[in-house]
Structure formats: C-alpha cells, structure tokens
Amino acid sequence: MPQGLDGKIATKFPGAHLVSLADLDDYDKKLYKKDHGSRCPGLVRINFYGDGKPTWALVLISGTDPRKMKAELIVARQLDGEWDIRSLETTDGTPVVWREGPGKYEGLYGDGDKTIHATNPVIVFCGYESWAIVYSWNGKEVEKVWISD
C-alpha cells in the first residue's frame, strides 16, 4: 500500500484490514492464484479515473467470524498530496478485487440490465463462486454492472 494511505485507512476504517491470501479459504485461494499469481487479492493499482493520478482499489474486511465478516470496496485516489477515499460497495464474506482493461461489459440479465462501455480500466469486485461486479468511471460518476451471479 502506498505511503500515507495505510494510516488514512487505519483512521477511517478502524478494526478493518486489507484482504490477503491468508483470508481466503483454500478453494478461493487456488482460484485467485490461478488467475492472478501471488498478488494481493485486496489491493490493485488502477488508472480508474483516466487521469494518471495514483489510484488504488482496496477490499477491507472486518470481523473475526468468517461467516459474519463484512467487506467494503474502496477507491483511494491521491489528489494534491491528500487521499480521496470513496466507498463503492459493502457485502458479506471475503471478496477479492482486480482490474480489467477498458471495453464493453454486459450485464448479466440481458435487456433489463445495462452495458458499460468503459474508456478507462475497470474494477472487478468478486465473491468467488457467487458473484462479480464491474465498476467503471464514466467521467461523471461510477457505474456498475453485475457480470456474474
């Protein structure tokens, strides 16, 4: 995690920690390592806003009972030396995060759902064997679409 961001996260989210490989059960760890190697499943650097400023997507979890853990997806962007932190989603369990390139991301449910045409890299927030959501910045706001359920 970049210098200064760890302290800001610790202050803003007391008792929460970054998802690590040790937090995943054996099956989820195997799936994550197959696609992403030994990278941290709770932290990814991404040019989410398309402005080149240091930006990270993080998954923080809190709680000690794996069945009652709460997870939160955060985007942190460094602006003028300060960290701008935005929460995108909260859920149960121990999801992971990674980035994908710009492109077309179609919603799971056909006509009723939407399609995102991302011009910047996107954040993928995933609860293995359950769900996955893509988040994209469209220049004005964050859009999201479920790509797996």
Write a structural description.
The longest helix has 11 residues. The protein is globular. The strands form three sheets. Strands 1, 2, 3, 4 and 5 form a five-stranded antiparallel beta sheet that branches. It has 149 residues and is mainly beta. The mean pLDDT is 91. 13% of the residues lie in helices and 45% in strands. The chain contains two helices and eleven strands.
Task: Give the rounded overall mean pLDDT.
Answer: 91
Count of helix runs: 2
Helix content: 10-25%
Distance N to C terminus: 30 Å
Q: In one word, what is the shape?
A: globular
Structural class: mainly beta
Q: Total number of β-strand segments?
A: 11
The ordered H/E elements are: HEHEEEEEEEEEE
State the major sheet. 5 strands, antiparallel
Low-confidence blocks of residues: none
